[in-house]
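Re: [help] complex structure
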Amino acid sequence: MIKAILVFNNHGKPRLTKFYQHFPEDVQHQIIRETFHLVSKRDDSVCNFLEGGTLIGGSDYRLIYRHYATLYFVFCVDSSESELGILDLIQSVCESPTIWSLAVKVHYILSELVMGGMVLETNMTEIITRIEEQNQLEKQE
Amino acid sequence: MALKKVKGTLERVLDKNLQDLVRGIRNHKENESKYIAECIDEIKQELKQDNLAIKANAVNKLTYLQMLGYDISWAAFNIIEVMSSTKFTFKRIGYLAASQSFHEETDVLMLTTNMIRKDMSSQNMYDSGVALNGLSCFITPDLARDLANDIMTLMTSSRPYLRKKAVLIMYKVFLQFPEALRPAFPRLKEKLEDPDPGVQSAAVNVICELARKNPKNYLSLAPLFFKLMTTSTNNWVLIKIIKLFSALTPLEPRLGKKLIEPLTNLIHSTSAMSLLYECINTVIAVLVSISSGIPNHTASIQLCVQKLRILIEDSDQNLKYLGLLAMSRILATHPKSVQGHKDLILQCLDDRDESIRLRALDLLYGMVSKKNLMEIVKKLMVHMDKAEGSHYRDELLSKTIEICSQSNYQYVTNFEWYVSILVELTRMEGTKHGKLIANQMLDVAIRVQAIRHFAVSQMAILLENSHLLANNSQRNGICEVLHAAAWICGEFSEHLSNPKATLEAMLKPKITSLPGHIQSIFVQNILKLYGKILKAAEAKEDDSLKKEVHTLLQEKLPVFIQSGDLEVQERACSILQIVKYIMKLEEKGAAVADEVENLYAGELNPVAPKAQKKVPVPEGLDLDKWINEAPDDSSDEEVPGNTFFLTTEDEHRSSYQHGDESRPTYEPTEEELEKRKAIRKTEVEHNPHYLKDDGKGHKPRHKDAFDAKDIPVAEIDLSVPLHVPGLSSSDKYMVLQQKTEKAHKGKKEKGKKKKKKGKGKTQAEESDEDEVAAVHTVSTIVDAPEGMAGSDHEDDKKSGDVYKALDINLD
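Output below.
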């Protein structure tokens, strides 16, 4: 299961945060800070897996992250998720140009991907179709 | 009235939307919190309006602020208002805010049940979608119970989009309302064969999550999953199923046997690294669970190790990391297959990436054997010298000690070598493992009797150079080693070659810069050494030696009396008094060295870890009873100060109760000493663990040609590692072992001859794997209350209550 998805920039400012387990706001903020601290120390040439921090999860949890130009995408997952699979997921989402042109509503995009901490859909075309339809709905109203 | 309306519209035009908010925050970097506070006030005003569009905008902004760390729970009711809008856009905004901030404690959640129900059955597919999504984040037991049926209906909707979401959310429903699992399960099973691949993978996902926590309930599904595995082409589904199998095989070995073939096929055929990795993992899990070999058991292990080697050698750091991770799982059960790749793993220790280095370190831990321990530790020490980060260096240090001390020092064949390693480690400044090294020294010195002489000589050298180590006096720093050194020299002083020199070393004024707890050990052991010297002097009737020692102590001890640390002061005072009294007795001609020595008679053994808990409560003792009568309500009784501090006959306490001037010096009379001696003797008789002290004087051994005065006393810059002449180097033991091995191999055909190494006892351990003889034996005696069984397995792991509730038989 996915415990949290965090997106923040090179200075640690959160751009998108989704927690699939409840934490009060100040703890969430601490988690973001701690994760940023761990991830920003890493060179770009090292592996993308980190044994997690102390606040989020315990020994069963890992951080899987990817760094794109100015953004860090971090998934905190437990052992039921495939590490390479999640990495592929982040990659295919981030490198799809269509996604970013619709990018303002990143939360809504994310909700087509992951729901309740579990991966919902991995087929890119399906995801994009849904997002576009919902955008249409919005325009019509 | 009209004016109000116009005013209102104008204000609305000026309302900030989310983009403006974000831009505004970025523009107000200096006074961000003030700006945000203003924005929140504006939002509060907007929320008071009737217009739903305005409210939705406000809630949208609140969602962003929540991400920055601000609590928005005060707006919960407004969020629900927005959720109930008929417009999809607003509804979506409301549900998003809810999913980010609602949780079990949110009171207004009970208002949402019907709304969610209505949304789920809406004509518009996306309305239901949004509701399901939001629900998955804030579902509570009440909501789960009330909405379970509606969600189950959705599982059979005509639209795959909704079926998929409904199936996935059932997992969350089960977590909150476990009773739903049994009725929902048949339908869930059906979805495993749903025509739509998305729905199918959602079903696989849910069942895999459930099965990981309670695998035995899902064993009956194994054939179905097997079929799916061989027919599906979706990598995600395959991965989930294969991971599920690795959780199931420990329970059903026959399943494992059937899996080997399709998995091996997949390993050979797939091009997806993620799938390959999971297959390898599961094969490992299968082979671990199968106890007796299947015909191609070793072939499969070899295949896995081979593939993993390819992963580790890959330039992609991620694959390296995962390869090492999987190797460590194989290591647990098939260490031989992995040991052949030791070179590769040692190479990984050099990697730039800290995660990889740590993984390699973990692997090393399992790969040691008696033969290669010295070699591996040597390599680790080299790494420690080169290591950049002190964190990594500390990791290496603690891992080295772990490797050596595991299983009661199973792999250490020569304890002299180990002691020299420990001493070399003291050169590692800036480490926070000083205590660890000190503990190891103590442990080895206490439990390996044969090595005591060597250990004591090394410790004496350390003491004589304590001014070098004392510079670094941070807590838990390397100065902790002096604690061990002092104690060992004091306790096993019979091995000291020059006790007087050591005594002088312990009395150096530099010692006072050490932390208090170390100083107190020094003071205590000074008395032990003093007793030893006195005994020797009496035996030789060397009065001048006695006088020398007495003056030495009288000069140097007072420095400790002025210490700021309570314990040090206390001990120094008592010891000074004892020394003064003994001097008086000596002048009268009485030989009291025996009594002094008896103060420290007896062998100290390590205490078993759970011994304290196992001490039986004596009969008649009721710990829950009030000791005194329960206190009255009137609490202003004056308690005279004296009764707080009990006046005992203990000489230590009394010196603090009265001021310095009127310190009654409690001098043990002759009768007291006799009484103590008698009590001690009876204790020694009854305790089976004490070794009787037969008072044999030990002749001081001939020390190596080394003179303390040769060491330069100048303060050296500690950025350069310490080199202290006289401390033995560990290399010579390694060379010795290698030579011995070669000799052993040669002599094997001629029959077994025991070879004496140095002064230790030889115990030729004929094990199958390696025939390296262990030089010294490790004692395993521990102190414990009588009748204590072996350490209990006290289960104190936190049980996953949620998952336990889901542990139901589904057949």
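Chain A has a mean pLDDT of 83.
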